[in-house]
Amino acid sequence: MSAGGASAATRRTVAFLRRFVKPRILALTAPLRRLQRLVEILSPERRAPFAAEIPGDWTPASGSASATLFYLHGGAYLVGSPRLFRYASRAFARAGFDVFAPAYRLAPEHVFPAALDDVF
């Protein structure tokens, strides 16, 4: 590490990611968010009975629950919602878990640590 901060290799990697990767990721965000809006229109919201004031999705277990699973959906903090990833919650529910997936703010509109703050 150089005295001025990041190493030359780190600076090159960051420059590469900003120049070539980030623009492509942001270009994919819009169509994925359109899909997300459609899924949310078609899927009714189901709030958790123990925390109705917290936005998210509740999927009860099929049968008796062995535990409650706190599920953070995928999407790299750019796309996704609990309802878009409900298929995963349903799989956990079939395995015997009650599942709560919180809704959290996404980038780039909300910068780090907004999603982390929402989850806590």
Please tell me the CATH architecture by its name: 3-Layer(aba) Sandwich
Q: In the CATH scheme, what's the topology name?
A: Rossmann fold
The number of domains: 1
Indicate the percent of residues in helices.
40-55%
> What sort of overall outline do the alpha carbons produce when their principal axes are compared?
elongated
Average residue pLDDT = 88
Order of helices and strands: HEEHEH
Poorly predicted residue ranges:
none
Query: Can you list the strand order of the major beta sheet?
Result: 1-3-2
Radius of gyration: 18 Å
- Please report the total strand number as a whole number: 3
Number of helices: 3
Main CATH class: Alpha Beta
Keywords:
120 residues, Rossmann fold, three-stranded mixed β-sheet
Describe the structure.
The protein is of the alpha+beta class and 120 residues long. It has one domain (8-119): Rossmann fold, CATH 3.40.50.1820. 42% of the residues lie in helices and 12% in strands. The chain is built from three helices and three strands. The chain has helices at residues 8-42, 86-94, 114-119; strands spanning 56-59, 67-70, 97-102. The chain has a three-stranded mixed β-sheet, with helices on one face. β2 (67-70), α2 (86-94) and β3 (97-102) form a beta-alpha-beta unit. The chain starts with 7 loop residues before the first helix and ends with a helix.
